[in-house]
Amino acid sequence: MRMVQGEKVSAKTGGMLRVSLAPAPVTAAQAAQTARRLLTTVRVQYQPSGVIARKLGIDPRTLGKITGASSQDSSMLAFLSL
């Protein structure tokens, strides 16, 4: 934590200071280690979109529209519990 330069505690600010926090820089090795740790318990199984659409009972084009919108609004995918 660091105090913003020029800030003073006074009655005007109500005794409050502005504080800014910056995360420590992450190296590629640290990022890889974190990813490995997180993914050890995750079982990822790829399934083609046609198989998923069949399981959901929807047209593959509809699934494409839903998953294509996922980068903008992930709440649309909430009902897809496989």
Distinctive features:
82 residues, two-stranded antiparallel sheet, single chain, 35% helix, mainly alpha
Can you give a write-up of this model?
With 82 residues, the chain is mainly α. The chain has helices at 28-39, 49-56, 60-68; strands at residues 2-3, 19-20. The model has no long low-confidence stretch (mean pLDDT 75).
Low-pLDDT stretches: none
| Approximate shape | elongated
- Global structural class: mainly alpha
Q: Helix segment count? A: 3
Q: What's the end-to-end separation, in Å?
A: 44 Å
* Fraction in beta strands: under 5%
Helix content: 25-40%
Mean pLDDT equals: 75
Main beta sheet: 2 strands, antiparallel
Order of strands side by side in the largest beta sheet?
1-2
Number of strands: 2
Using the CA coordinates, give the radius of gyration. Answer: 24 Å
Task: Provide the succession of SSEs.
Answer: EEHHH
